[in-house]
Design a protein that fits this description.
The chain is mostly helical. The protein has one domain: CDP-alcohol phosphotransferase transmembrane (TM) domain (Four Helix Bundle (Hemerythrin (Met), subunit A)), CATH 1.20.120.1760. The protein is built from 9 helices and no strands. Helix 1 packs across helix 2, helix 3 packs antiparallel against helix 4 and helix 6 runs parallel beside helix 9. The longest helix is centred in the last third of the chain and has 31 residues. The radius of gyration is 20 Å and the shape is globular. The protein starts with 14 loop residues before the first helix and ends in a 19-residue tail after the last helix.
């Protein structure tokens, strides 16, 4: 049963009026946002966010719904052998979870901004699913003896690359703000060409790739290409981020403030 925060009032506006309000108040997409995430998932999230607002759901409840769909899809990978039906079910669960992941932030912005606890919860769920999905895939393939053992290197490598990339993106953005640099999500930084070029790194495309899970040679080829593209992107992005941050001046600290070891992050 879904809990509704007692202090949250249900809006009197109609559903489509809320959708239009969400469209106007939409946060600018990051410059590196891939096409599916930017043009499809954000729109799906907007429709779900409007429904959540009408139902009086808090952003944290929407995050919980997102996690439920995502981890259901991840669990299916470990519980059942590869098949067409399983692949479609996993793809739908992951795609639904991704859409709700977009919706929670939109609900928060519609209510005047999210809380630090809500942002923490959202990022923690993202961090877990980033590593859990490829690890669950490796467990399922190994458990049902679906592939030669050496194929497991791909999802295991994907788990490491995905985790490092997620951490690198979050940390780099925080250090940019700390140094007073313009965020990559600032207005004027949008590029549809860039969105198309980074499609192989699109989490939405990764979700949809499981539709081919019933034909393992096809799925493994697609998944390996996604992994290779993501690993290549991580290498190039890491070089760029390091050079960018090397040229940044550290923010000045108030007199008498000691630098703790953790402050370096």
């Amino acid at each position: 049963m879904t809990a509704i925060a007692p202090h949250v009032k249900r809006p009197v506006d109609g559903y489509w009026a809320i959708v239009r309000s969400l469209s106007v108040g939409q946060k600018t997409a990051a410059r590196s946002a891939p096409a599916y995430s930017r043009y499809i998932n954000r729109r799906l999230g907007r429709l779900l966010a409007a429904a959540a607002i009408r139902a009086g759901l808090s952003p944290n409840v929407v995050t919980a719904i997102s996690a439920a769909f995502t981890f259901a899809g991840i669990a299916l990978l470990m519980l059942y052998p590869p098949s067409a039906v399983l692949g479609i079910g996993v793809a739908l669960c992951l795609a639904a979870g991704y859409a709700f992941d977009s919706a929670d932030g939109q609900v928060a912005r519609m209510r005047g901004g999210g809380s630090p606890a809500g942002e923490w919860l959202d990022h923690m769920v993202d961090a877990v699913k980033t590593s859990a999905m490829p690890l669950a895939l490796a467990v399922g393939l190994f458990r049902f003896d679906a592939v030669d053992p050496w194929w497991l290197v791909v999802p295991l490598g994907a788990a490491m690359v995905s985790a490092v990339l997620f951490f690198g993106m979050i940390l780099t953005e925080q250090l940019r703000r700390q140094a007073g640099r313009v965020s990559v999500a600032e207005p004027g930084s949008r590029s549809w060409i860039r969105s198309l070029l980074v499609i192989p790194m699109d989490y939405g495309v990764l979700c949809l790739s499981f539709v081919s899970y019933g034909v393992l040679p096809v799925f493994l080829t697609v998944y390996t290409l996604i992994f290779a593209a993501t690993a290549g992107f991580l290498v190039l992005a890491s070089v760029k981020w390091f050079r960018e941050l090397s040229a940044s001046q550290p923010a000045s600290r108030p007199a008498g403030q000691h630098v703790m070891q953790g402050d370096r992050l």
